[in-house]
Amino acid sequence: MTRSSPPDAQGLALGVGAYALWGVLPLYIHLLKGVPSLQVLAHRVLWSLLLLAVIVILLRRGPAILAAARQRRTLLLLFASAALIAVNWIVYIWAVQNDHVLEASLGYFINPLVNVALGVAILGERLRRIQGVAIGIAAVGVVVLAFDGVGSLWIPLSLAASFGAYGLVRKVVAIDALGGLTVETLLLAPVCAAWLAYAASTGEGAFGHSRHLDMLLVLAGAVTATPLLLFAAAARRMPYATLGLLQYLAPSLQFLEAVLLFGEPVHTAHLVTFALIWSGCALYAWDSLRALKASAAGRPAATPHISAQQQENAP
User: Fold this and answer.
1) Which DSSP state fits 261?
2) 174-213 per-position pLDDT tens digit
3) Which of 34, 137, 239, 314 is the most buried (most CB within 10 A)?
4) What is the spatial distance between Cα 275 and Cα 269, in angstroms, rounded to a whole number?
């Protein structure tokens, strides 16, 4: 097994930048609170596609992406991943616009543990004992929230399930991050364009009525693509196990925003649930670091699990 090299300062800065931008995404979405969620999603897809097209042309990646997308299996998998990421994005946008940032952050705390569980159930990967304990602790937290009835449990479960399934598909599809996102947005673009055209025809379209709002909607492309590009650059400079530990930065920021900025109520069930989820995530992170150090020392690595690489499109 190859030895893992420690992350350099630039790689760490890029990774922190990516997850920090994902963490403050609710601040941007709150500025679009008056725009229907489906229209926000449609603008995010279309403006992202425009920006990605420019990047692909500048990097001369078009032929390689086209060749990958021509493979029938790859295209079918990207259809599936496009549908899953669209579901994830629309649930997240709706949750933020309707003051459920707390529940949304919970979904992304659960997600890494869902990834591990999916790897065991579908890919036949073996679960390390500590990973199993971490998942069990997190599961207890979800059960506490479910039985208490506080909040909207469907939001974190939908986000974690859709993004976990998305990560599973992207793990096996033969295309890189930039190519995958480009093809996914291209597949979603016709539906999104049709929806915006319909909204405009009924007089409910948000675009074209306010220069300020129009600029915010155009920025959706940069808001989507910038953290992806930072993440991709960081992933080339540091081990995924280390990069994966940074993914807790985004939901932690979202949790703080929900409580301190948006004034969302925090109940006892929330505190118990988050304490259990954080404990499970901390245990998972510690186990990942231990496995990374063992690999770097040349000792036999612990059993594999799904890495954090699929965080590229979150949320």
Assistant:
1) I
2) 888 889 889 999 999 999 999 999 999 998 999 988 899 9
3) 314
4) 10
Cβ(109)–Cβ(274) under 8 Å? Answer: yes
The angle at the Cα of 231, spanning 11 to 284, to the nearest 5 degrees, equals: 85
**Both tokens of residue 255?**
């949790």
C-alpha–C-alpha distance, residues 175 and 308, integer Å: 16
Residues 6+ apart with CB under 8 A from 84: 162, 163, 165, 166, 169
**Model pLDDT, residue 90:** 95
Contacts of 95 (CB under 8 A, 6+ apart): 101, 103, 104, 152, 155, 159
Is 118:250 a contact under the CB 8 Å cutoff?
A: no
Q: Quick one: tokens of 257?
A: 């925003």
3-class DSSP assignment, residue 5: coil
Cβ atoms 288, 241 nearer than 8 A: yes
Q: How many residues are there in the chain? A: 315
Question: Which residue intervals of 5-150 are DSSP H helices?
Answer: 9-23, 25-31, 37-59, 62-69, 72-97, 101-121, 129-148
Q: Are 256 and 105 in contact (CB under 8 A)?
A: no
The residues of the chain scoring below 70 in pLDDT are: 1-8, 149-151, 239-244, 292, 295-315
- Enter the pTM of the model: 0.84
User: Taking a C-beta distance cutoff of 8 angstroms, is the pair 307, 241 a contact?
Assistant: yes
Q: What would the two tokens of residue 11 be?
A: 């790689």
